[in-house]
Amino acid sequence: MFEGFTSHTIPVGNGIDIAASVGGDGPPLLLLHGYPQTRACWRKIAGPLAKKFTVVAADLRGYGKSCKPVGGGNHDAYSKRSMAADQVALMQALGFPRFSLVGHDRGARVAHRLALDHADAVDRLALLDICPTDTMYAATDQAFATAYYHWFFLIQPADFPERMIVNNTHHYIRHTIASWCRTEGAFDEPILRHYVEAFFDPKTIHATCEDYRAGATIDLAHDAESDAAGRKLAIPLLVLWGGRGIVGKTFDVLAEWRKKSAAEVTGHALDCGHFLPEEAPDETLKALLGFL
Question: Global pTM?
Answer without folding.
Answer: 0.98
